[in-house]
Amino acid sequence: MLTIDIITLLPELLLSPFDHSIIKRARQQKLLEINLIDLRLYGIGKHKQLDDYQYGGGAGMVLMVEPIHKCIIDLQSRNNYDAIIYLTPDGKTLNQGTANHLSTHQRIMLLCGHYKGIDHRIREHLVTHEISIGDYVLSGGETAAIVLVDALGRLLPGVLNDESSALSDSFQDNLLAPPVYSRPSEYNGWTVPDVLLSGHDAKIEQWRAEQSLQRTKDLRPDLLED
Ligand code: 6GU
Question: Which of 127, 137, 139 to probe ligand 1 with, by most ligand atoms within 8 A of CB?
Fold first, then answer.
């Protein structure tokens, strides 16, 4: 069982994405628990203030240190965390290896930022991992959290059946997945490779391995470098 506690300014945004398909089933099967924590509850004063101008000047508001600190302390007083992850475009780029590792934890905390980011002292003193989902900027960490939760949830033992096991995914062996086809074998004059219709398991296996390697060479040669 993996528990993921997500600190966010937009808990409503995260309701629907975790209520469908594989992630929904993982939660129903009690293999995955997701808790949404509204940062606003830890805001300061009667306006529940969360952000302020940055020291030194410059455009953009910063999420203040105190609300985030209080929120994290509150969660830590009730639970043990294997990782406290800040989602940020300047974090380490998420890959399958990191997803595999994080999926083995019991409980992790995700912190979604907004605006110009969060007071750096949170990152210096409380955050244990910083993760980005790619080299582009999102308006907040929530959509990145959706991606990370999906990548972890589907890896949990029992979530996928053997046939669709995560082990056959692209990237698990640093190779892209081979092409797949379904009925009919000819549509609109477009055909399916003969070998897949041959019933010859060993040949099919060999064809898939060749396709994986060729597609990786053509499309993602960087994956073959290490
Ligand atoms: Cl994790 N957050 C934001 N705001 N932008 C991103 C990202 C995360 N990963 C890529 N771009």
Answer: 137
Centroid of ligand 1 to alpha carbon of 137 (angstroms): 5
Domain boundaries, the chain: 2-153, 168-225
87 lines ligand 1 (CB under 6 A): yes
CATH superfamily of 168-225: tRNA(m1g37)methyltransferase, domain 2 (1.10.1270.20)
For the whole prediction, is pTM greater than 0.85? Answer: yes
Under CATH, what is the fold of the domain 2-153?
Alpha/beta knot (3.40.1280)
Using CA atoms, how far apart are residues 119 and 51, in angstroms rounded to an integer?
A: 9
Start-to-end CA span in the chain (Å): 32
What is d(CA 52, CA 173) in angstroms, rounded to the nearest whole number?
A: 45
Q: Distance (Å, rounded) from C-alpha 88 to C-alpha 144?
A: 9
Give pLDDT tens digits along the chain (226 positions): 999 999 999 999 999 999 999 999 999 999 999 999 999 999 999 999 999 999 999 999 999 999 999 999 999 999 999 999 999 999 999 999 999 999 999 999 999 998 789 999 999 999 999 999 999 999 999 999 999 999 999 999 999 986 666 766 778 789 999 999 999 999 999 999 999 999 999 999 999 999 999 999 999 999 999 7
